[in-house]
Here is the input.
Amino acid sequence: MRFVWAVVAFVLATVLIVAGIAQRTVFQGPTTETAEISVTEDAPFVLIDGAVFNALPGSQTLRANAEGEIFAAYGRTADMQAWLADTTYNSVTLDAAGEIDVSLVEPVPPAVEDDEASAPATDAPATPEATEDAVATDVPEQEPDTGVVIAGRSPAGSDLWLDEFQQSDLLIASLQLPEEMSVLVAADGTLPAPSAISVSWPIGNGTPLAGPLIALGAILMTVGVFLYILGINHVRRSRGPRRKGLPIPVTEPIDVATIEAEEKGVISSTPTRRSISGSRRAFAVVPGVAVAALLFSGCAADAWPQLTPASTPSPTATVVAPEGQKPPAVTKAQAERILAEISTTVAEADESMDADLAATRLSGPALAVRETNYVLRDALEDTATPDPILNQPLEILLPQAYDGWPRSVMAVVDDEASKLATIVVMSQADPWAEYKISHVARLEASTLMPDLAPDYIGAAQVQPDSPFLLIAPEDLATAYSDVINNDEDSEYYGLFDAETDALRVSIAADREERLAAFNETGSTTGELTFSTTPGTDEPIALATLESGAIVAVTITEHDSVKPTNEDAFIKLSGNPMVEELTGEDQSATGFSTDYSDQVFFYVPGQGSTEKIRLLGYGSDILGAKVIN
Here is the structure.
């Protein structure tokens, strides 16, 4: 009977193990589902909408086949459509039935008005030709008077992309895109984009019963082996004929040598029947355990029931975006990449003193002071190199919540190694332009930043004439210049926090020192005067959470030295910078030197009890000239 049960156990174990293995092999379905995208019309770009990638749940894998280089990038759908607004491309979307639809999108020529001055302004993105900041190599050639693109441009390196990929012949990219993002596929922007494109998703084909089936089969196999061993032992114990009477044992002579050996403690090397049967039993159990171990080693986590519930993340405090607010201009990862590229480009420009290269990533006052610095460094060896544009670690990011152009981003980078903390404003003029830094200033160690919206929400840009701040951004530079010129006699003196204003203290100390030195030798024949005026650049203001704003402005400090005697003249001594910038070492009319101050303020909202606080500033020589 033991053999019968052993056979039953073996049969059941085989069935269970085979069933478990079959679930992981022949009965297991496909691991992915793939959607083929058939592109029939040749175009330099293919834009795949985020709805296509989210047709099925889970991560997405993009595949594109073509000869040569293949480029892919993803970003916000609205940004990509704006970048493609002036060119022909294939648009891949989902129709009402959930099927993939591919359509060719042609650029719309701009409307031509008889009277150009009467043409109304629109919110549509400008073409690359309409913006001076657009890089010349990225501007597509157009047919005369039509605006239709006839040549492409390279999509690589655009600041609009959140990430990009480039591979040869076969491109495979693993993505996890939300519906509001899309993917751009191209070759080089001129050749037709790949036509063999597919998107695949993983399919949940776990086999939670495979592990238990194999485990139960291994247990039954072990039980069968055990029953089989018991059956063998039982047969051995009961071997020989069975009769009614007890058999008479055969009388054999006693082996005296064996008895003497046992009495002396000698152990025979011949194993007994009990030891032989025990070793065989142990040996027979080993195969069952080994088979179970081998089978279990091939079982993945999805071969077992998942009894532990998925962990639920604990709620965290969030800031809710106002209703109707646009998405932020950049993400944090995107801003870090842009800042890294700006930092590298400006560092190369500083080393080679290449103003044209610097102009690809700088604009406004940030570019103007570097152009002056390059001229001075080329002529004067002891002229200091400008502070580098820091790019990491990015401590604060405040992007403008806007989906049009131009758009701006404010960032604070605090580098503990160099003990420098800078605040910058960078702007993008249109979809085809790169971000350029227009204002850069150094933050003081004790600077207290106002409460700002998180980077994933962004902030609205405050209009220059906004009446909701303590002072309108367009009037801030004028008011601060008046405070520097008139100190406590200025009508705006009470608006500014004097305790945190390190720039005003620095300007006052510098002027007092220079005036004292000038009066020692030149007070009888000349005069040194100082004045401050607002800069010509437009202010940039981004809103804070307390209804205030961070405002970046520029002011210009003017130093003028003139002769007071008709027979006297001003001779430059110990001022090689002014001599180099003017090309003169003396003048009968005098010299004027300009310094540019890039200043960041926190301006509270109307009704606040706070005052305007200085956050940071940067001061550099801007130019010099002979007074006419």
